[in-house]
Amino acid sequence: MNRHDLDKPTLITGGCGFIGCNLADRLAGQGGRVIALDSFARAGVQENATWLKARHGDRVEIVHADIRDPTPLIDAVRDSRAVLHLAAQVAVTDSVDDPVTDFEINARGTLNVLEAIRLHNPDAPLLFASTNKVYGRLIEDSEVERRGDRYVPRAEALANGVSEATPLDFYSPYGCSKGTADQYVHDYARVYGLTTIVLRMSCIYGPRQFGTEDQGWIAHFLLSVLRGQPLTIFGDGYQVRDALHVAEAVDAWLGALEHAERLRGRVFNLGGGPAHSTSLRELIAGIARMTGREVQHSFAEWRPGDQPWYVTDTRALEDALSWRPQIGLSEGLASLHDWLSTRFGSSSKREASA
């Protein structure tokens, strides 16, 4: 990135969403300018936009637009030094109910972003928020075994988690649309020479996350407990995910942006890794200890594409950026709990977690 571009804003699509607003806050807090482009389709986005403007004023420009509409997207891309592309349809269940809209946002919308850069600002690096769902269900039920309250894979090759060398196997319309976008972003570096980086993310959690049953499950679990509402667990609760606090996800994103020229065309998995993994049952027990409240929950059938086990192998990104997750799940949950308690007016007091 040229030095004379440093006074230009960074465009963040989905910039008022959970990860997007945390990225915008960090960049603006460092003195940078940000264009936060968002369709305002999800709950909490307007509040995040108001929060960004209150904290940073004119350093953050809010653009109410949809990536399916090329005109405002081109205007924003043309003036930007870099593009962080996070705008997406994010729920597997919504993709099953309406696969056409899911495709139009995730696949066609990403192609619009790529074409805007290729035709109007080809020197701008693009970082893309992909997902671990591009690997599909990954392993069959027979390939995991239960140990305590979690599943573990039988294959020793997965001891460090899932690497970027894992074959892609899109599953569910959401997996197909995000996977299509993932491969387009990767290919535009090869075919058109754009500076693109793909970040396949696992579970990211932390403040400014308005979790729902379909997306942002850690925040959804905590928020349900604070509201005294029962949880529905899809599957048996022994399924495992790794979790990464949003502050460390932002570190990784901005580290990749800083080294975009060197990392051009690379694909990285981004998550908490084996040391920061949890099963749903383990998380429920941890929330109960932290809040001093019983977590009411029931079980329902697995959803399409649900993985019985997914843990990120973070070694490639660690080597590329000298980056490593440090925030433990108990500490990270505490920060999310404190923010949710303040935001939603809970009178509960957090107890020391075990």
Polypeptide structure, described:
With 354 residues, the chain is of the alpha/beta class. The protein has a single domain (3-343), classed as NAD(P)-binding Rossmann-like Domain (Rossmann fold, 3-Layer(aba) Sandwich). Helices cover 40% and strands 18% of the residues. The chain contains twelve helices and 15 strands. It has helices spanning 18-29, 45-56, 70-78, 92-97, 99-120, 172-191, 217-227, 246-258, 260-263, 280-291, 315-321, 329-343; strands at 10-13, 34-38, 60-64, 82-85, 126-131, 144-147, 150-153, 196-201, 203-205, 231-234, 240-245, 267-270, 277-279, 297-300, 309-310. The strands form four sheets. Strands 3-2-1-4-5-8-12 form a seven-stranded parallel β-sheet, with helices on both faces. Strand 6 (144-147) and strand 7 form a beta hairpin. Helix 3 (70-78) packs parallel to helix 5 (99-120). The chain is globular, with a radius of gyration of 20 Å. The N and C termini lie far apart (46 Å). Residues 346-354 have low confidence and may be disordered.
What name goes with the CATH superfamily? Answer: NAD(P)-binding Rossmann-like Domain
Termini separation: 46 Å
Report the order of strands and helices.
EHEHEHEHHEEEHEEHEEHHEEHEEHH
The CATH architecture category equals 3-Layer(aba) Sandwich
Low-confidence stretches: 346-354
Radius of gyration (Å): 20 Å
State the secondary-structure class.
alpha/beta
List the keywords.
354 residues; globular; alpha/beta; disordered C terminus; Rossmann fold; 4-stranded mixed β-sheet; 7-stranded parallel β-sheet
